[in-house]
Structure formats: structure tokens, C-alpha cells
Amino acid sequence: MTLRKQRRLPRAATVLTAAGTALAGTLLMAPGAHAADSDITFSNVVINKGKPIVLGTGAEIEVPMTYTLKTRVRLDSWQVSPYRGTYGQNSYHLAIGTIRWNCSQSSAGGYTFYDCDESLQVDPDMLPGGRKLVNSDATVWKTAGLGIKVGGGYDDDLLSYTTRLKRASVIEGADATPEPVTKGGPITVKGTLKRANWNTHRYDLYGGQKVVLQFKAAGATAYSYVRTVTTSSTGALRTTVTATKDGTWRWYYGGNSVTGAKATTGDYVDVR
Question: What Å distances lie between residue 184 and 78, 181, 214, 228, 269, CA to CA?
């Protein structure tokens, strides 16, 4: 049996029962943590294809997630959720909802297996319980699985898998001038690096960061390294290079443990 894609329910969880019925509401939350039993286990969890989740301000995103559920009891519903804190009453969860695209079902050894493909709905302005993200949430999040049994009862499974959440960065005003330029003349490349501030829900200037200037010659397929420039205290980027051939200039910021990477789209300069 395959559980099929369901209609998205804005700002609410889309949780499928074992029969494939969509349930609308907030994410399921266990009343308290307890040790997982052997009847229900979650494994093979991968969130965002193993990459950090990078989140800006105000815009909800969908984060892909896959996992395997193994059970020998019938379930009404289940979920896998990233969380912080001590699981149970003193934890808070990241996703405001889940879209379940597909769950393929198989059986072996008295167990039923569900291989699920889902999307977590994540919004910096809305976490379950009315909380919002703050800058200290840019860190490692733990994960837990929860299964609600038919006829009552539940099991939660505290998992070893973790995912990292990062604040988005942007480079504004990226520009290479003049256009066109005489061969051998100077090209000045500018920009301003900013980073999402979840405390204030805006983008702030981001100083003291190393940003790479890259160049892709006309006809080339990849950018090459030119030099590294450190942003000023106000996040400003500025450097001058010599025009030798037609091509595209861009800035690339590699990010750090709490900040996501960013590359500008590139600015083409005609050398004459």
C-alpha cells in the first residue's frame, strides 16, 4: 500500500493515519517522554538531505524529510519532529506542520514498515505553542518519533539523528563597475553582507566576515577564486581588480556554524 500526497493545510499539521486519512491540526505532542518499546521504532531519518536548515525572517519554508517507521501494533497516526530542550513538557518543536507526500508500506517478520517522504513546514514567526525563533535557536536540534496507537496509548522514540538550524545571510547591492570597461582598466566590485536576526525579525549588517570574490570568464562553466575580502563593521564589501577579459563577477560567503552560505547571482562586465 502507498499513502498518497494530501492537500496542504496552511499553518497546520497534515498527519496521515495508517489508513491514509488526512488529519488536520497542530503537530502531535506526547504528554511526556518515556523509553521507546520494541513495538514502534523510527530509523533512517534524514532531514533536508543531510544539510543544515537555513532560515530567514518571516517566510515559511518546506524542509524535506525521509524516515522509516517499524511497528507491530496498529497506529492511528505518527510523526518525526526536530525539537530542543528536554523532550516532553520542557521541549519545543521546530515545525508547525507536516506534509506527507508518500509512505510506502511493506511487511516482514511480524512488523509493518513505512518508508515515508515528507516536508516539514517551518516558519521563524510561528513555532508550536505560539513561540518564535530567537538567535540562540541557531544550533543543533534533536529529533523524536511519536506513534499514537489504535485504541489508545502512545510511544515516543528519542532518536540519535540531529539537524542544524542556521540564520540566513544575504549580500545586497552586489555590483561590478564600470560596464563596459577598457581592457587593463579597473573594475570595482561592491556589496553589503547581512544576516537574519530572529530576535528582531529583520536582516542586520554583518561585519568582520570573510567573503570570496569569484570570476567566471565568458564561455566558462564554473567560477574561480579571485581573492578574499573581509566585510567592514557595517558589512560593506569593496575591492578593485584589473579588467582582462569578459566575464561575470560574484561574491560568495561560505557561512559559519550559525549562519548559512550565500552567493550573489553575478554581474557580467564587457571588456573592450
Answer: 64, 8, 18, 21, 13
* Residue type, position 224, single letter: S
User: What whole-number distance in Å separates Cα of residue 204 and Cα of residue 138?
Assistant: 16
> Residue 190 class from Cβ within 10 Å (0-12 exposed, 13-18 middle, 19+ buried)?
middle
Distance CA 218, CA 142 (A): 46
**SS3 category, 153:** coil
- Amino acid symbol at 121: Q
pLDDT tens, residue by residue, 45-72? 999 999 999 999 988 999 999 999 999 9
Looking at residue 130, the DSSP 8-state letter turns out to be S
Contact 83, 143 (CB under 8 A): yes
Q: Residue 252 CA to chain centroid, in angstroms?
A: 19
pTM to 2 decimal places? 0.86
Beta strands 186-197 and 202-205, pairing class: antiparallel
Q: Dump pLDDT digits (tens) for 66-116.
A: 999 999 999 999 999 999 999 987 899 999 999 999 999 999 999 999 999
Q: How many residues does the chain have?
A: 272
